[in-house]
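hey so u asked for the seq, here:
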Amino acid sequence: MNRLAQSALLFLLGATLLHAGTTDLYLRYVKSGLRPLVLLAGVVLLATAAATLWYDRRGAPGHEHHEPRISWLLALPVLALILVAPPALGSYSASHTGTALTKPFGFPDLPAGDAPLRLGVADYAGRAVYDDGRSLHDRELKITGFVTLDRAGAPYLVRMGLNCCAADAQPVKIALTGDVPPVLAPDTWLEITGRYTPRRTKDPVNDGPIPYVEVTRARPVPTPHDPYDETWNT
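ran it, structure tokens below
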């Protein structure tokens, strides 16, 4: 692998990172707040590629080294980024990982009114478990997440949260009761309308607390722009 090949590889990787950062592709790998760092890394790699090529064109003196051919394996991550866009983590990961719900520092006031209140899975779960649903009583709620089933077939509504990247994603789960569709396929995204119920259960994986929501309506929805939920760990 000579300097020309090195600069080509660096250019390709930098261009791939810029492409990922200027589209939604980066959301499959890292949380949305890291977009500036993805773009910066792409710019740095492109600048490094240009500097490497310029240095080689100048014919700078020095000893020529013959790197082992195994160094071409460095091209594999680049090809993976270009050719394979992994799906967001879904029901399989959620069913094999215990709920990551933790007690928040506090609960911001919710907007008043009679309109349905839209909440995230983690927000509802936190208020239901650690605030006994005080702010949720007598409110119609809308919550969106994907479906996962436990070994007994019980349905949960789930969002995966990120600390940094998809490698550390963890689920927060809500158990469903009430007017639940009789047939639910794992990984189906649902918008459920319902109300708070004090009923709770324990996650069969780690015995973590899982609140229920009383479902009155449920409808399938497309996968959201950002399938991960970062609000639970902020």
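Residues 7 and 54 are 9 Å apart (CA to CA). The mean pLDDT is 83.
lmk if thats what u needed
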